[in-house]
């Protein structure tokens, strides 16, 4: 019997808890799971599954309706995962740092820390390439409503952005680029990681 078939023989409540747990894991660690091993995925999913299980114990109107309990359990899991992603994960890191327990954020590289941070509020992005051509996007917020906007940070170090200015390495001045075409729309540019020498980003401090 395959692993999938074995899982399908489990009680429905158990399947819901396992499924909701993994859903919670995916939400809480979207784009931030590169360093996770199978055991990490399993135990974090179980932790969120426990949240789902507790949510499913809630009685509505003094009765225990399976359908309603499942909906509550999944909703509580999703909400918990979102809160962890948005607030609690950063708060825990701050506490560990403030108490001198650990200065590590658990990520593989500084690039991963920048890429997945929910505190980024970038206003300007500059990508410097090996061929001496530099690309810049000013006022990134204005491109946020568009596909892949305002920019995309790839796990492998690649970047996609809407280029508003270009600069040749030997020329100190930036040249304006016509990013928008009335007939063809907006142009987004992809730069492979192996062509990038440096990335500069300005963030709005609020």
UniProtKB/TrEMBL annotation:
TM region positions: 6-25, 37-58, 64-84
Keyword annotations of the record: Membrane, Transmembrane, Transmembrane helix
Top-level taxon of the source organism: Bacteria
Name of the featured protein: Uncharacterized protein
Species this chain originates from: Pacificibacter marinus
